[in-house]
């Protein structure tokens, strides 16, 4: 069962990261903190940061750096218009699939 859970989480990490960014410009560690507050979405930095790098490379998110009083510059992320459109499509697909699974599982347990 553990492998199935990991596979499901890998499938939703991109949508979860994009949804966290869609709420407003934010930095990587804050995204990790937001997701950790939600049961089932407790992703580590080593999972989230590669997704951010890939999304930036694909033009789905924009990145800017700002000096930090403690440590290296902080990188802030925001969705581009293309990223917002992708997230909307992904969210619609997720909602449809989750609804279908809920109907399928009714009475199954």
TrEMBL record:
Entry-linked Gene3D superfamilies: Winged helix-like DNA-binding domain superfamily/Winged helix DNA-binding domain (1.10.10.10)
Domain of life where this protein originates: Bacteria
Domain Transcription regulator PadR N-terminal: 17-87
Signal peptide: none
InterPro entries: Metal_resp_DNA-bind_regulator (IPR052509), Tscrpt_reg_PadR_N (IPR005149), WH-like_DNA-bd_sf (IPR036388), WH_DNA-bd_sf (IPR036390)
Name of the protein described by the UniProt record: PadR family transcriptional regulator
Originating species: Singulisphaera sp. Ch08
């Amino acid at each position: 069962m553990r492998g199935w859970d990991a596979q499901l989480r890998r499938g939703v990490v991109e949508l979860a990261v994009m949804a966290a960014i869609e709420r407003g410009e934010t930095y990587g560690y804050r995204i990790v903190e937001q997701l950790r507050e939600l049961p089932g979405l407790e992703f580590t930095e080593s999972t989230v940061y590669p997704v951010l790098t890939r999304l930036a490379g694909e033009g789905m998110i924009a990145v800017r750096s700002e000096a930090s009083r403690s440590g290296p510059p902080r990188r802030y992320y925001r969705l581009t218009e293309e990223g917002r459109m992708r997230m909307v499509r992904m969210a619609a697909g997720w909602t449809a699939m989750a609804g279908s699974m809920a109907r399928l599982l009714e009475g199954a347990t």
